[in-house]
Each structure stands twice: as structure tokens, then as C-alpha cells.
Amino acid sequence: MKKAKPTIFRCTSCGHEEPKWLGRCPECGEWNTLLETSSTSHIQAGSSAPNLNLSSIPLSAVDPQEGIRISSGVSELDRVLGGGMMKRSAILVGGEPGIGKSTLLLQVASSAETNGRILYISGEESAGQIRMRSDRLGIAGDRIEVYCSALLQDIERILEAVKPIIVIVDSVQTLYSPDIGMVPGTVNQMKYCSYELIHWVKEHDAVLFLVAHVTKDGQISGPKTLEHMVDTVLYFEQNEGDTRFLRASKNRFGSIDEIGLFSMQEKGLVPVEDPSTLFLVRRDGEIPPGIATAAVLEGSRPLLVEIQALVIPAKGAMSRVFSDTVDTSRISRIAATLEKHTKLCLSDHDMYVNVAGGIRISEVGLDLALAAALHSARTGLALPAKTFLAGELSLAGEVRPIRRLASRIKAGRALSFTRFIGPGQEQRPRLDELSAGDTEIYIRVPDIKTAIQKLMEQT
Q1: Where are the beta strands (DSSP E) in 281-334?
Q2: What confidence tens digit (pLDDT) does each residue in 355-398 have?
Q3: How far apart, in whole angstroms, are the C-alpha atoms of residue 239 and residue 278?
Q4: Which of 23, 106, 150, 282 is deepest in the core (most CB within 10 A)?
């Protein structure tokens, strides 16, 4: 008697497989989506005759020209990407509605340093709406070709006809294929359509930009698999003003520590030439208590940012910490270290911390300036003017060495700061790159207690 073929239950929403039927898919949480199917059907569908011409090549025989980057023509975007766009790469761009994702990519399409054709595929806007935006931005659009459709099969046909070097799809949530269903935005639609487009650009030495919607939590909407499929994931963020921050949460061809800074103006997104001016507040009078200037690194770029702290008696039985720009657990750790080693009571106070300009800072060099700002806010004693700080603070109260100390000091000197308080230990590598002017303003402190004493002496 012929043995029955083994069966599995596959989710029609996300493709998850289970050996037995379940009322609810454990992967996507949808109800009644598991359907019985043959466990070998998907293998048989993709099987073909064996290819006898398969062979591998030595790494030394690979053409190094395949790794050449294409400049986007937007300096801040190139910085975040690691130097430019890599051929055969897929880049996912997410951000809040109206933050400027489409504007940025339209500017990239206009200024990219390539002689190849550029195709802008829109599933949300008409060609007339795209033309209105380009006119508003002052973009001629002679080299940009527009195709408005969300049907994957039509997009694949136009790709084969145009053979573009840069493909922009706005947005991935609008794509659909009748093979998967007629409803766009489902998990299977996004995975299938994205895979087909990524496969095409990798075969044709092109670059793919996928615009993605975000959830109310700020995460890219859709399956997490989508972020694993692409090479780079970029997030667009916005502060309370017109400044936009572009960060990479994933980058196979560069660092994820770099940040791109843009200013939204009438003619679109303009790269910020002098970012330190965005995060420092110019005052004519004295500096109020609770203000400290920190020299931090965002990728390879040193920035001077103003740390603002407010410490008030707790209104309830437990003290609370509030901050949108610095991790609250980090603030609590710095406050505990400060209380332990300077005998300054902070445990019964609410603490509010902000970074001027709305930029989020996670770099360890912020610790010393944050501690100084909290101490100043608690005691009501203002810190001395023209003084900036940088250093990692350990739980033992030590001010630990930080990387690229010389570049931080040079950035402070360029902005007319006259005193720098930083680590007392000898840096590794040694600070041979410091000039005479840099060493003159450098005040070394071994621990947080000494740092507070030095600050109070100058007040």
C-alpha cells in the first residue's frame, strides 16, 4: 500500500509552518490561518534539473570594481551609508509621515553621480504630484523617469525595459502581486514583492531604495524579516524644529554609528554644514545652573552639545527620571555614582534631562558632562563659562579614557571654549596628536569628585 505523503499546516498570512493544526498562528498571531498542505510541495515546485555547469571561483579572481560606491550627491546620506551607495544593494528608509523621505529620495534621484537611468516608482502619488514636488524643490527632473503603479508584474516589466541603475520604490507597503493576493500591505505581500525587487537589482548591478511606513512606536511597519532582507536600514527622525536626523540601524557596508543632519527648508532638505551650532545655545548673560557642555562623538564626527538638567524634590514616595534624549537608566546610574562619591543626595529628587536640539545621545563620553549638569542643578551653582567636558564615568567614580579625545578638544577650541575637563589617565594610543594649544586648556581629572572640585574652583 502506498504511503501517504506527510502534511504540514502553513499560515496563509506569514508563511509559518506547524506540524499540526492550531487555531492561532504562533508567529503572527492571526486566527484560523493555518491550512493543511503537503510538506514536499514547495520543494517540488522549486526543483529543476541539476545544473552540471556549477562552479566556484577564487576570491582573488573577483572583480574589485564590483565594490565601487556611487555617490548619492547628498553628503549627509553618503556619510550614513559609509561613503555612498553600493551596487547590488537594497536600502530601506523609514520615518514618520511627512518627515521628508520622499523629498530626500527625489533629491537623490536628481543629484546622484551616475550616467545610468533612474526610475522613481510610486504606488502612493500620481506623476502630477511628483512633478509638483520637484518644481517646489527646484529639481528639473530631466534625468528622472517616473512610473506610477503598485502591481509587481507591471513594475518588473518596466524594470526590464528601462534597466535603471537606481530604483526608488515609494512605498513598499503599497506593492502587491495577484499570486499572493489582491490586498497590499500584508506580511506575505511585502516579503514576496521585496524579495523579487531585491533579486532584480542584485542581478542587474543596480541600487534599490524602499520607502517604508512606521508604526506608532517608530518601528518600520511590517515583518521584521523585511529588515533582514535588505542591506541597509535607515531611520529618519525629527526634533521639535526643522532639523532631521538620519541614522542607520543596520549597514552591511559601513558603520551604524554615523548620523546625517539635515535642515528642512523651502528648497527641500539641506545638509547641515556646522552641526555644533544646532546643539549649543548662545547666551548673552551668565549660564544658569544645570547647564553643561559635552564633547561627544556621533560616528566619526565630534559634536559639542548642551546638556540641560533640572532636579526638584520628588512629588511622590519615589523619585522619577524623565528624558527623551538620554536613556533614563543611564541617568539613574550617573546620579547614583554622583551621590555615592560626592555625598550629594539625589535619591529623593525628580530629575529631568534634555539635550539642546533634540538629538539622542548614547555615546559614553557624555557621562562626565551629565554628572556635572546634575550636580549643578541640585546645588544651584552654575558651571563656569567656556568649559566643556568629556569622559566615561565608572561605578567606582573614575573618569575613564575615551576614544578620539584629541578631535573633541580641537572641536571645542574651534568654538572658542577655553577649558576642557577630561580623563586623567594617559590615553591609549598616546595623545601625540594634541597641539600646544590643546594641552594648555586640558584639565585632567582622575575621578568625579576631583572633576566637581575643579569646576567649583573656576566658578
Answers
A1: 291-298, 301-313, 321-322
A2: 998 889 999 999 999 999 999 999 999 999 999 999 999 999 99
A3: 11
A4: 106
